[in-house]
Amino acid sequence: MGKELSVVVWAKEGCHYCGEVKQYLEDKGIKYETIDVTHHDDRRDVLEVKYGVRHVPVVEIGKDEVYEGITQVGIEHIEKVLERFNHKILK
Question: Which of 10, 25, 61, 77 could tie 30 with a disulfide, CB 3.0–4.6 Å?
Fold first, then answer.
């Protein structure tokens, strides 16, 4: 796999915290993909299988075939994982 950081935000319409997460990533210049679960219970089923949750946002951060899913609320959880993958991003 490539050396580029991969970030996926599982979100839904009208989710205030989902918007905060996306804005944080944009402010840091971090590219991300969004998976919208609005009206897609099957996508929530995927979250339940992977992480044991049906809520959003869930942020997946990965690099070199290793990834971590963040299900806790709070930008600080995202920052900790980003730092582990590539501390230069936060500078």
Answer: 25
pTM to 2 decimal places? 0.88
Tokens of 65: 């075939």
Q: How far apart are CA 64 and CA 77, in angstroms?
A: 21
Q: What CA–CA distance (Å, rounded) separates 59 from 79?
A: 11
* DSSP 8-state class, residue 39: T
- Token digits of residue 75: 């930008």
CA distance 90 to 79: 8
What's the rounded Cα separation, in Å, for the pair 25 and 39?
25
pLDDT of residue 42: 96
Q: Kindly indicate the confidence band of residue 55, based on its pLDDT and cuts at 50, 70 and 90.
A: very high
Confidence of residue 90 (pLDDT cuts 50, 70, 90): very low
